Amino acid sequence: MDVKLGVLAGDTRAVARAITWVENGDPRGAEVIRGVYASTGRAYIVGLTGSPGAGKSTLVSRLAALLAARGQKVGILAVDPSSPFSGGAILGDRVRMFDVALTRDVYIRSMGTRGALGGLNRATRMAARILDAAGFDWIFVETVGAGQAEVDVHDVAYTTAVVMAPGMGDDIQAMKAGIMEIGDLFIINKADHDGADRTATQVESVLQLSMTTGWNPPVLKVSAELNTGIDNVVDTIERHHTHLVASGKLDALKIRMAKLDVLEILKARLADMMKQQLEQPAVQVELEKVASKQSDPYSLADIIFEQSWRNT
Amino acid sequence: MEQKIRVLVAKPGLDGHDRGAKVLARAFMDAGMEVIYTGIRRTPEQIAEVAVQEDVDVVALSCLSGAHNTLFPKVVDLLKEKGADDILVMGGGVIPEDDIPFLKEHGISEVFGPGTPLATCVDYIRSHVKKEA
């Protein structure tokens, strides 16, 4: 199987294997990205974030079903936490997505965070490029259940939706920074439950404090469970897309994404390089000096950093 | 490069008893593996498709309904059709001794019955998953 050609042809097995490679930092993943990158840029990437249990997975599956019914190909990258102790993970988002799991044009990939803290996996960005090259029209990126600081999705998606459920009023008050700032739209899920109107009002009142211009994030009430309001979400995402194009923001965003693609690769390489340096026997002696306070961490970091450059 | 073993824990057929599958899923996670759980009452078609989409190394099938002789080989056949016959398929649940040779002939690499220590299943996966160098 030529994975690169398979990805370009939209072959599921090739797409899946390519994502595994970029996730594992396998050099073959980099080769695939090099080979397919020119074919990216056509998919529209949407991020969904929000508290655990807000209904992100159910909502994503409803959105995917609706778009698939319109003849669109939909890719879903669903991130769940990895155990900080074993490094393993139980990736359970799929359990709530089985309605669409066998729809021909929907691909779902579960990812563990593997130690990343921003709500995604470090390879999520490149996995989205692979789905893009494979001809998916829409890519949904679902974060781990997020609190306030897991805002990485904003750097991966063109449109970010923050999903909430009724009954978290005080939380919203506390969320004026971080996650409340990255939403291009706010979705109050479980709108059939008590308190949905109140939550919507509270979100709106926090949003009114924002000084940004050009796009006022709409607050939508939906029920993923009952499958109501889903078309309104799609309409709003499309409206936001139109806004980004008309305002020229999409072009700026694409340059920003390119920069972040490069930054992600640089960060991974530097981290590998530094980790290797830290394992050197000579460094162990220095580490002991830091431990016994004969040296300090900044001084040792300076030495390691300089040596790394000299060795490359 | 960091390789993780990815395991699909799947419940084929009309069988609502998934305590065992969940205990195994947890054990695999604690062993550092990434586990995708299907939930109950899945078809062999769904399971094979998910296995391919998720690029798993192992499919661990659990069945307590007695339909294993039909359902387990079906999953193996469908994986082969999808060109994914390198995926290790193992089975467990309430499976009579007499059925085990039949299942093994049909591509189930190993069958684990009630009372199998969790470590046995974990070790089996670790020693049988061929991770590319």
UniProtKB/TrEMBL annotation, chain A:
It holds the Pfam family MeaB. SMART domains: AAA (SM00382). It comes from Candidatus Cryosericum terrychapinii. Belongs to the SIMIBI class G3E GTPase family. ArgK/MeaB subfamily. CDD domains: MMAA-like (cd03114). InterPro entries: AAA+_ATPase, GTPase/Isobutyryl-CoA_mutase, GTPase_ArgK, P-loop_NTPase. Keywords: Chaperone, GTP-binding, Hydrolase, Nucleotide-binding. Residues 42-186 form the AAA+ ATPase domain. GO terms for molecular function: GTP binding; GTPase activity. The keyword Chaperone applies. This is Methylmalonyl Co-A mutase-associated GTPase MeaB. The keyword Hydrolase applies. PANTHER family: LAO_AO TRANSPORT SYSTEM ATPASE, LYSINE/ARGININE/ORNITHINE TRANSPORT SYSTEM KINASE.
TrEMBL record, chain B:
One of its GO terms (molecular function) is metal ion binding. SUPFAM superfamilies: Cobalamin (vitamin B12)-binding domain. Residues 4-132 form the B12-binding domain. InterPro entries: Acid_CoA_mut_C, Cobalamin-bd, Cobalamin-bd_sf. Its cofactor is adenosylcob(III)alamin. It comes from the Bacteria. It holds the Pfam family B12-binding. Keywords: Cobalamin, Cobalt, Isomerase, Metal-binding. This is Cobalamin B12-binding domain-containing protein. It comes from Candidatus Cryosericum terrychapinii. The lineage of its organism: Bacteria, Pseudomonadati, Caldisericota/Cryosericota group, Candidatus Cryosericota, Candidatus Cryosericia.
